[in-house]
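Supplementary Methods, section 5.1.

A reviewer requested that the exact input to the structure prediction be made available. We therefore reproduce it here, unchanged from the version used in the analyses.
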Amino acid sequence: MGWWNMRLGASKVDAKARARALAMLMALGLALAFTLAVVTDRELWRVADQPSPGPIAPGVAQPPLPPAAYTVPAGALQVATSAQLVSALAGTTPRDIVLADGVYDNPVSFANPNGHRLYAARLLGATLTAGINVASSSGQPGALVRGIAFDVADPAKTSSGRVIFSWGASKNTQVLDSTFSGHAVLTAAVWAYQPDGLVVQRVQIRDFTDWGVVADNNVAGSTLAVPILIEDIDVANISRAVPRTGGGMAEACVGIGNTATVRRVKARNCAWMGVTTMNATGNSLLEDLDIDGGPAAGMPAGAGSQGSVGLYVEHLTWDTTFQRMRIGPSLSYGVVCEGTDPNGAAWNGVSASIDNVIQDSTIESGQVGVLMGWATTRTTTRRVVFRSQYVAAITDYLGVNNSYYGNDYSGILPGALAVSPVWWR
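The structure derived from this sequence is encoded token-by-token as follows.
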């Protein structure tokens, strides 16, 4: 018989003793409820969400596929010189154009406003030293680039430093099986200001200042007719000349601003953040993200607060799942959900992260694993293995009904907390 039955269940206990015991239990219950509701003591936060019984398999992100061979369409127009390519692109009826092996140059971007479909005759056999501008206010959708190597060192040969740029009528743009080198002077490899129907697959990107791939129409609350599809992206070295001077609005490997499916991304040494969601990223899926920093991205334990971020969840991201991620170890923050003053004018007080799920991942970062900023709402972190954090695995600063369970905190550093109300110590 337990203490409760012995003390309150025995028939010979007098009424006063019974009342004292009940009062004691009520006081203990109130104290426990207060502790669970407030949990401000550091040691209490340490045990707020203990690891679930049994080992948790670390999140394993599947690697991206490389550019792959393909079959050139029958009946395509064959070109072998830059002049022939310019002439072919001038046609107003979309058609297949095949580029023979060689180098194609132009003083400015090759203009493709009419939805022509470009193929290298042999995978990466055709090299373009100028970009392709598919933007148009009244052209044809459906432009395609496949199997082409872009090696562009002069911003004047691009659209404002963007190798491939879409806008306006250029819906359903596809960029497949291609490589991009920006020589640390160009802004972006693929910048889709018209992201409706965008497909980017099996692409390798190196050495740009602001973005690897960014797909965002910059219209809050917008809905696409066809969601974005981005798969098998290998991107590295996205940084301004002085790293982390982009103000949080650049220096990212991949940026998503509308509803999308993103799979198998390897991101390395992106000065501000590896992957970011923003603007109107709702009902999306991002999975198999392998994100790490470089020499300037991480910070030693206990140092400062301005290191790089693996995944940055910005305004506005909702009903989105992030899973099978491998983040770190050369990063300061694994995931950051941007904070919002709920009473402020910015974003009308609406949280950056609402009803999102972070799951089945491994996060190894120097400071914090998942940082939930002010007013993060109903965001769940579950089945995540945390390693090497100096401050905390999870910080939840004035969040709204967030949850975290089934996580493994056994690998965080001594003195770090499992769950903390702040992101410093």
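The longest strand covers residues 228-238. These observations are discussed further in the main text.
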